[in-house]
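Supplementary Note 3. Input sequence used for the single-chain structure prediction.
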Amino acid sequence: MLKRSLWVIILGCMFAAHAHAQMQTRVMPVRVITFPGGANLPLWIAEDKGFFAREGLAVKVSPTPNSVVLVQSLMKGEQDIALSAFDNIVAYQEGQGEVALEPAPDFFAFMALSHGTVRLVANADNATIADLKGKTLGVDAIATGYSLVLMKLLSQAGLKEGDYRLESIGGTAARARALMDGKTPATIITTPLELAPETRGFRRLANVIDVIGPYQTIVGMARRSWATANRDALVGFTRATVTALDWLLDPANRAEAAAIYRKNMSDVPEAAAAAAVAAMTGEREGFQRGGAFDRQGLVTVLAIRSEFGKPQKSLTDPARYVDDGYLRAATAPR
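The predicted structure, written as discrete structure tokens, is reproduced below.
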């Protein structure tokens, strides 16, 4: 009887150890949708350096052609996380989005990736913003994102909404190509995608932070319902991405960061990759250490949307669209 009991104990211990090992090696799939381009460098670093794997995550990144596809894919459950402009969250939560979403969305921002880095770039025929009067200007979605930044810049230059026309032509990479192909005279471009047009003689008419002030650009975006049901996956994703951001912002890693950039953008020459990394890691604007939100930048987004969003609303509280609890959990000592 004693011998049999001993074997039961041994087998029980073996089963428990096996179950524990399975839990430790369990891989959590996470689907991420984002605009294509160099701004995804933190994701590439997190994958290349094993930061996602260390969190037990299998991250699949899919490109989106525009913000409408991005938000619709989140709502349908086809994607779990999006990297997108903070303004897109505000717009859809306030019923001011480019398209209607059913049921009502529960989007929120759980971390920040970049601030600033928004440029108005035009062809050589336009020396000032005022020269854009009467022109058709390329945007992603007319009602959301950086379109409202463009409206603000035009307004400050004395142009009213009827003095120009906006045309939806896709995400930033598509707009940069359209600009260089002569399909739009000017558009908003985010770093580093302005570098190629500028080397070809296109003009930078404005840096948003110089004209408007601090501005929150890319954030991590998810549905509150998904985040609640998948807390471990979201905290792990946030921790890995923050680790990648902090690694990237260490000057000692710039050369390796440029090599990872080229690994994912194979058609970019070495010098251009180094320039892109430098542009995205500046002191005043670029990627954000620790994934921390630019609080004044959030307020600027709300102020611009209050002015140009339709139907018009007064928006003043960033906390309605942000939950940094996942970020705090990700960066807490382990």
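Residues 118-211 form a domain with the D-Maltodextrin-Binding Protein; domain 2 fold (CATH 3.40.190.10). The first strand starts at residue 28 and ends at 34.
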